[in-house]
Amino acid sequence: LTVLNAGRRYLKAEDLSGKAFVTSGLGGMSGAQAKAAVIAGCVGVIAEVDEAALLKRHKQGWLMEISNNLDHCIARLRDARKNKIALSLGYHGNVVDLWERLVYELDTTGELLVDLGSDQTSCHNPFSGGYYPVQLGFEEAKQLLSTNPGKFRTLVQESLKRHVAAINRLADKGMFFWDYGNAFLLEAQRAGADVEKRGANKTEFRYPSYVQHIMG
């Protein structure tokens, strides 16, 4: 319902075939995103750093394909959008790399490959394993978290700034991004990312909440 209503509200579309939804997280609550994309008829590309979560969702049948290759992911995304194929593709990697690759595609081809975007990393707990920084691989980041949590925190905040910068670039070209109630925008703001709403007070964000704007 969230994906469908986001399409209705932001894309003015009842039919989401040929549209792309990019997000992250295939764990506990976020695991349903892959299934939601296919039910809604769009292309869902969901990034997840933990391979165990990807394999679990694939085994369940909630996730149709898995790849750790961004070139392959972009090619599949292009093909599925063009042919209006409902697809859930799990990218085994950091969502920041995915967002930045989408910016690269925009800059080099002029093509905006994503229509809807969100995030379901566990940003209510960003410095204890809920969010993994793009600068490190999954296992390396887990090691740093246990040996130097202060450095881990710094990398997370740097990663959040890159994360938001890529989203902002795509949103400026017409992608519609919403907050999924996971404290992503709050933690990004605390990290110094550009998420504040222009001309509003500091408690308002430039992207809407799914509770008020979509489900409501």
TrEMBL record:
InterPro entries membership: Urocanase-like, Urocanase_central_sf, Urocanase_Rossmann-like, Urocanase_sf
Superkingdom assignment: Eukaryota
Domain Urocanase Rossmann-like: 2-214
Protein's GO biological process: L-histidine catabolic process
GO MF annotation list: urocanate hydratase activity
Matching SUPFAM superfamilies: Urocanase
Name recorded for this polypeptide: Urocanate hydratase
Origin species: Eudyptes filholi
